[in-house]
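User: Some background: our group keeps a shared notebook of sequences we're curious about, and every so often someone picks one and asks for a predicted structure to add to the entry. Today it's my turn. The entry only has the sequence so far, pasted here. Could you supply the structure so I can complete it?
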Amino acid sequence: MRILINALSGIGDALMFSPALALMKRHSPDTIIDVAVMFKPVEDLFKNNPYVSNVYFIDFLKQSKLKSLKQTLALRKNNYDASFNVYPSNRREYNMVQYLEGAKVKIAHRYLHYSKSNWDFLNTKLIQEVKDRHNVIENFELAKTVFPKIREEELGGLEIYLTQDDAAFAEKYFSENALNHRFVVGFHAGSATFKGHINKRWSAIKYSSLARQLAESYHAKILLFGTETDVNEMIQTLGGSNVLIPKTGNLMQSLALMERCSMFVSNDSALMHMAAGLGIPQVAIFAYTNYKELYPWQNRHIIVRTELDCSPCFFNSPKSVKCIYTGKDEYKCIKLVEVIDVLEACEALIEEIPSNVEP
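Assistant: Of course. Here's the predicted structure to add to the notebook entry:
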């Protein structure tokens, strides 16, 4: 059997298919599993995965539509028995791509919101989206259509595969910056910007305050991750000399540095899921997205969020997030999260961390 996984929608979404991918391969070792991606970091994420045979990168966003069409149609020669659209992929473009790839069975979700306009009729089988069901389990339900004997309780954690070169890069950085045997906390203060998701970011000023308090109370060193240069530079300026911004060449080098952190603090972002895949105790700050569907999978974590009647209000659809409030109350779900709330969550995790934390 030959299967194609369309991991087109983003890094975190792609990573949350990895438990289902591993489970399929364990149940059917002879199955060939390929992955199609449209972002280079997703390609990096899968190229070292031992369960993946080929990764096909198609630059839909930057190259001509004609070139993308040719690359998509070229996948037909592989004669896939089945293809999956990784959850969530609630856009007509994703369904069109899957249709053009020509697998015998095309599997995707029927979404609770705006599904009728996403051309899901182009697929062969549709799995009904279930509210409050974690993304990993939604992906498991896709895989189960082809492998009906797999069981949910067999699902493992999110899978990330780093190379020896990645580990050597992290070792060199930690040695050069005297971070070995120190309490190192990773921050990701950014998020995606599409669909208005810049609004789920916790304040950079509050991250700076948290950094200062962790440094003063626990002698912590703070490493800032992500591509949001302006945000990270503000946190470094306001957070003090214990805040560092590592220079990395790619996502995997960043992940190798993250793996050496004792704790990770972030917004709901792809790097939040990466931290879960690396097994780092983490504090996850949520705004209007559904934490029940997106919490760090199979990893020690504490979620910090504001309980509001209107939250969560973002659904898996092509539409941008829009707050029902205006003015100073706009996106108050994230604005009402205070430094003390996140600090207390950090302190709860610190109590569980071994002796590398100096009181």
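Suggested note for the entry: The mean pLDDT is 95. The CA atoms of residues 193 and 199 lie 8 Å apart.
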